[in-house]
Description:
By secondary structure, this protein is of the alpha/beta class.
Amino acid sequence: MSSTVTSSAGALADTAPAGGPAAVVAPSIWAVIKAHSYGHGTVQGMQGFAAADGLAMLDLAEALECRESGWTKPILLLEGCFEPADLELADRYRLTSVVHSREQLDMLARARPAQPLDVLVKLNSGMNRLGFAADAYRGAHARALELRAQGILGSVGRMTHFANADAAQGVAAQLRVFQQVAGDLPGPVSLCNSAATLRYPEISLARGGAESWVRPGICLYGASPFADADAASFGLKPAMSLRSAIIATQDLRPGDTVGYGSLFTAEAPMRIGVVACGYADGYPRHAGTGTPIVVAGTRTRLLGRVSMDMLAVDLTPVPQAGIGAPVSLWGADGPSVDEVAQAAGTIGYELLCALATRVPVRTTP
């Protein structure tokens, strides 16, 4: 028996305030489906977010898969193209590319696309990963406009990425850099990831005729980008449920231990269940005793160390459970993926993305 995961599409939430001035409109949505839709499957993400205005991802192969599976709306490559062959595919499949380095601009200058390529020129406003430094950005944007005049580029937009939209520092400092450096430049704007879209919806609104795009990711799958606010507080519902079943039970005496390393010791007589799921399925090995699990609809806890293919649960709260009893490891009828991640000292993103290919997937409407 193996664990199973049920994946369904999340809903796209409209976070913009209703009404308002005519010049202020809700942004368009890039639904981020990188890392195989955060472990849910590339095509499943494409189908689930059919209402989105566009899709965003890192992997060129995933972009081509979406095009070949019928997606006709915009696709954004979040890290852009890295070699001429990538540009040829971006041209053929009509992909929008992020441009974050001089080398990418140089490569574009040598390109001869059949149709002008749409790009977003990225500003490093403080994340210090990708993007042009503040003192180089306007020159890079101006060069992109020159390439547009030459017919190489089409739309030339602006973007940045917030490092602390989910933290107390917020976005003010980086937003100020963006406004000072790029605020008066022409072209579409893309600023907000999941955390910024949820916490600062006002900065994602399109103003003064400039087209605005948000780039929500983790929140689309029903997980929270915040350590201090759960998904339910935003009305988000989990898109993935990881389920399995009990395959064996054991009756323990006081002093008996469980699993590798004997990390759990029974203090009194108790009954435990062995669940067909382990770290080879993507369940975190570093989850310890007390991590929440639901057995037959009753909340209980993990015991001891997670093995490659199995883990143990406390059946004290659910004495009727036996072999075949359903187990929810995270999802709609179990603990949230964020709860499990917190107990394991990580974040929900990692658990969703780490789902193993050996786990059977059942997709529901």
